[in-house]
């Protein structure tokens, strides 16, 4: 959608990633044509039932400008999360940026847990076992696919 404000003043390259089960980082770059005093503010809504709330821990770039946000205790639900970044400047109106993101698509999964390898000589072979990675939203372990890379010396 087109919002009021200077063309090229909205943030660019918005991207978020979830890691360690419940932590999330979102980052962005200032708009190409944003005035030098522009400051950006992120608001998000995790699901339709949640209230929209502002970022609690901004990542600061040069000149103290907000260039990202760190989140704790993020739940991955079935709804798309809504993100909105607006800006303010003394002299100009700054364009909004907004996006809906399905949080499970941006999660970096932790490695599988409790990996063990038992090798025997007779018959020569190894049994490798593990448990699924920790995640906040997947209950079905059948959803995971694994790849084992065995390197002989």
From TrEMBL:
Entries under Gene3D superfamilies matching the protein: Immunoglobulins
Membrane topology summary: Single-pass type I membrane protein
Domain of life assignment: Eukaryota
Alphabetical list of InterPro entries matching this protein: FN3_sf, Ig-like_fold, Short_hematopoietin_rcpt_2_CS, TypeI_recpt_CBD
SUPFAM superfamilies reported for this sequence: Fibronectin type III
Recorded GO MF terms: cytokine receptor activity
Keyword Chaperone set for record: no
Residue ranges occupied by any Type I cytokine receptor cytokine-binding domain in the UniProt entry: 13-106
Cell compartments where the protein resides: Membrane
Source organism of this protein record: Cochlearius cochlearius
Keywords of this entry: Glycoprotein, Membrane, Receptor, Signal, Transmembrane, Transmembrane helix
Predominant subcellular localization, coarse grouping: membrane
GO annotations of cellular component type: external side of plasma membrane
Protein name (Swiss-Prot/TrEMBL): CSF2R factor
Source lineage: Eukaryota, Metazoa, Chordata, Craniata, Vertebrata
